[in-house]
């Protein structure tokens, strides 16, 4: 007789990914959270489950939305709505991302995420600068941009769209004199933060 055992909560991968994306060392996070470097390392490797107060402190230090940490444990509804005033946003240097859709956890390779990207003049994205699995599609809503893709540069004007394999390094640069607004879709989801 087999028993259906619930998988343990696994926050480690998310905590590590955010820490690395922000360029923080284990030591910096541990010091700011008031815990040992060893404990942070064990939590990131899912060797220990953190106490809720430790998890809350780590989320605060890393500026992580708790909904992001617990999203796998919420029951998904077939229709997902994100009201304009409830959009999660993320800032990355000068780039601002506004989440338009959240990836569903049960879709694996078919998952997608979408967001608005806002860049000031001369601003650029960094999220794809090393490349990743999947494909991306972008649509320039307002402004002028360049797609730096591998060693090539592509000019994009208002109303233009672009799609490409995300495996090569890629960044978007606002080359106009006005703020840039673009719609971006990534599949499989790269995980909006």
Element order: H for helix, E for strand: HHHHHEEEEEEEEE
Whole-angstrom Rg: 19 Å
Physical arrangement of strands within the biggest beta sheet:
1-2-3-9-4-7
What separation lies between the terminal Cα atoms?
41 Å
Mean pLDDT: 83
Q: Name the structural class.
A: alpha+beta
Major sheet size, sense and barrel closure: 6 strands, antiparallel
Q: What percentage of the residues does DSSP assign to strands (E)? A: 25-35%
How many extended strands?
9
Classify the oligomer: single chain
Tertiary shape: elongated
Number of helix segments?
5
Low-confidence stretches: 1-7
Name the helicity range.
10-25%
Description:
This protein has 193 residues and is an alpha+beta fold. It has a 6-stranded antiparallel beta sheet with strand order 1-2-3-9-4-7, with no helix packed on it. A 3-stranded antiparallel beta sheet has the order 6-5-8, with no helix packed on it. Helix 2 crosses helix 3 and helix 2 packs across helix 4. The radius of gyration is 19 Å and the shape is elongated. It starts with 11 loop residues before the first helix and ends in a 6-residue tail after the last strand.
How would you concisely characterize the structure shown here?
With 193 residues, the chain is an alpha+beta fold. The chain has helices at 12-22, 26-33, 37-44, 52-62, 66-70; strands spanning 89-92, 95-101, 113-119, 135-142, 145-149, 152-156, 161-165, 170-174, 180-187.
């Amino acid at each position: 007789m087999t028993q259906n055992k619930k998988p343990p909560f696994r926050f480690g991968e998310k905590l590590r990914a955010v820490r690395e994306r922000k360029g923080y060392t284990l030591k910096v996070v541990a010091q700011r959270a008031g815990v040992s470097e060893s404990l942070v390392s064990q939590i990131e490797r899912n060797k220990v489950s953190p106490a809720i107060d430790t998890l809350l402190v780590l989320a605060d230090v890393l500026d992580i939305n708790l909904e992001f940490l617990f999203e796998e444990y919420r029951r998904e509804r077939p229709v997902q709505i994100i009201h304009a005033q409830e959009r999660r946003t993320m800032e990355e240097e000068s780039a601002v991302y506004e989440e338009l859709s959240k990836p569903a956890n049960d879709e694996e390779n078919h998952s997608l995420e979408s967001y608005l990207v806002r860049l000031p003049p001369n601003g650029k994205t960094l999220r794809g600068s090393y490349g990743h699995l999947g494909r991306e599609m972008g649509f320039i809503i307002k402004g002028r941009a360049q797609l730096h893709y591998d060693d090539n540069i592509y000019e994009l004007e208002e109303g233009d769209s672009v799609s490409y394999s995300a495996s090569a390094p890629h960044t978007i640069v606002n080359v106009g004199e006005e703020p840039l607004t673009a719609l971006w879709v990534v599949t499989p989801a790269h995980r909006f933060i």
